[in-house]
Every structure is written in C-alpha cells, then in structure tokens.
Amino acid sequence: SQTIHQWPATLVQPVGSPLSLECTVEGTSNPNLYWYRQAAGRGLQLLFYSVGIGQISSEVPQNLSASRPQDRQFILSSKKLLLSDSGFYLCAWGDRRSSYEQYFGPGTRLTVT
Amino acid sequence: QKEVEQNSGPLSVPEGAIASLNCTYSDRGSQSFFWYRQYSGKSPELIMFIYSNGDKEDGRFTAQLNKASQYVSLLIRDSQPSDSATYLCAVIPSGGYQKVTFGTGTKLQVIP
Fold this sequence. Notes:
The complex is a heterodimer of chains A (113) and B (112).
Chain A: E1 3-7, E2 10-13, E3 19-26, E4 32-38, E5 44-52, E6 55-58, E7 64-70, E8 73-78, E9 87-94, E10 102-104, E11 108-112
Chain B: E1 4-5, E2 11-14, E3 19-25, E4 32-38, E5 45-50, E6 54-58, E7 61-66, E8 71-76, E9 85-92, E10 101-102, E11 106-111
Parallel strand pairs in B: 2-11
Antiparallel strand pairs in B: 1-3, 3-8, 4-5, 4-9, 6-7, 7-8, 9-10, 9-11
C-alpha cells in the first residue's frame, strides 16, 4: 500500500527565517506530487505541483519554492518567511494509474511569529 | 464565478438521518469528481470518486453525478456523529489531469 510522510508535524518560525518542509511517498512510482496551503478556516490553495523529477509548476507567485530531487521526494522551501506564510501545509500525491485522485499526507502546521 | 461551489454550511442533521451534500462546477468538460472528508485539524481523506453519470455507492456513502446539470452530490445514509467534518468536493477540469480544483467545503454536523 502507499504511504505519504510529511515532517515536521508542527513548526514555529520567526519572520525572516528560512523554511524547509519535506514530503516522501512510499509504495508507488512516478507519482504526481503537490503542495497545498490551507489558511485557518479557508480552502485549499495549490502552491506547486510536479509531474516528474526536476519538473515544478508554480501556481502562486510568492516567496516559496519547491524542488523534486528524487521521484518520491518533494520539498517546499523559503529563504525568508512572512507572517502571511502561516498555515497548514499539505503534500499530496496523485495516482496516474487510476483516476488521478490525490492522497494527502498528515500536514505541517506552520506558525510564523 | 467560482470553479467549484459548495454551500459552506453548517449542515445539521440528526443522527440516523440522510445527509445530502451538493457541489456545482463551472467547467462543462470536467472529467473526474472526488469527495474528501476533513476532520478539524487533520488532512483531507478521500472518500469516493466518480467519473460517469449516475450513482456510485460505497457502504453508507453514495456519490451522484449529473454532467448535464454540472453537479455532483454526496449522500451519507444513517449519519453518525463521527461523520461530523468538512466535506470537500474536487474536480479534474478539462485540459489535463495534473491539477484538481477543490471547493471550499461544507461543514456537516450530525446531532446525537
């Protein structure tokens, strides 16, 4: 079966500090990978998606970046965090073998102070 | 016009009743449709997906798709307090399978 991991689970960072969130998927190969952000009480905002190693599509221009150094690894980064970066960050993988449904990791709750 | 629209709720139903959650979408060429359940503070969990007109049943859950009217619904039979959560509708639009468009969700409260 497939499993998706995210860490850390929670993070409190000061404004202007860097960020690195990691996501890994087990039990599948060549998945589509996604980063979403969900602000408190809001819907899911797609930040980045990737269809392969080194292939990143950005949905929202901001101070975040993403990388996919390995087939099942997806990293979200920032050089300098803003207060508005606070939120619930979710990684998901998409199943190309089925109906492209997406499965979410447990998420990282980021608070920028 | 939002691409995927849901009533934010809350939708309150008594325990044991049928909960009906609705979703409309604007892209007539949309291809696949998904329902997710999200408990407070947790990540979304896929409940069902449907891509053909009609009904699809899985246990207490039934997804209904009507492409002509551009709506998809989720029925939960014999609602339980543990069903209380926010339900997200998601749609794969025309033009590719890389992205899914999510609605903002309907909050369901099942009253014991």
